[in-house]
Amino acid sequence: MTTLHELARKSAKSATSTRGAERRQHRRHDLEQQELPIDRWDGSRRIGKVFGKIVDISASGVRIRTEQKDIRPDHQIRVRLELPEYAGISPFIDNSNDGLKPKREWVGWMAVTRVTPVDTKQVEVAGRLVDMDEMDRGMLGLYLSTQPLAA
Fold first, then answer.
1. Which CATH number among 2.40.10.220, 3.30.465.10, 2.60.120.920, 3.90.1300.10 corresponds to the domain 26-144?
2. Is the CB of residue 29 less than 8 Å from the CB of residue 144?
3. Which residue of 29, 76, 123, 128 has the fewest C-beta atoms within 10 A of its own C-beta?
4. Closest by Cα among 74, 22, 51 to 124
5. Contact 88/75 with Cβ under 8 angstroms?
6. Beta-strand relationship, 61-66 and 47-57
7. Domain segments of the chain: what residues?
8. Which has the higher per-residue pLDDT, 55 or 149?
């Protein structure tokens, strides 16, 4: 008699053999058409300067298009994401008070992993959102599940 664990292992093995191993921990979602800005955040003054526009995003990382060409892989950039509510779901959670409240913005660090030239004026910068807490990561994943997947 086959156990549930053995069935799950066989199913996972056959799925990866037919389409290759999945590298990503979280699915990317295409938000380019929404032209959502991402800010480079100055925490000491609590102000942001537009850094670029979101191309796609996952619960663990983001890819943006920007005209700032001085960015290199291994840079750490403080960013501010502000995403609109969608289908009644807020992308983040405010857990700083007694209860949980929905919120639309997140401020944290992006660890740049890749910089790719797009044309003479723009580059695409991809990186991991490194200090997002698990509650926000889970809410962002739920929020993104309502969005179109990226190719």
1. 2.40.10.220
2. yes
3. 76
4. 51
5. no
6. antiparallel
7. 26-144
8. 55
Which residues, listed in sequence order, are joined to residue 38 by a DSSP beta bridge? Answer: 52, 81
Of 111, 123, 115, residue with least CA distance to 76: 111
Note the pLDDT tens digit of each residue in 56-80. 988 889 999 999 989 999 999 999 9
pTM higher than the cut 0.85: no
**How many residues belong to the chain?**
151
81: its two tokens: 């994401």
Region 93-102: mean pLDDT is 87
Q: Which residues of 132-141 are buried (b: 16+ CB within 10 A; e: fewer)?
A: beeebbebbb
Helix (H) or strand (E) holding 4: helix 4-19
The pairing of strands 105-117 and 76-82 is antiparallel
Letter for the amino acid at 77?
I
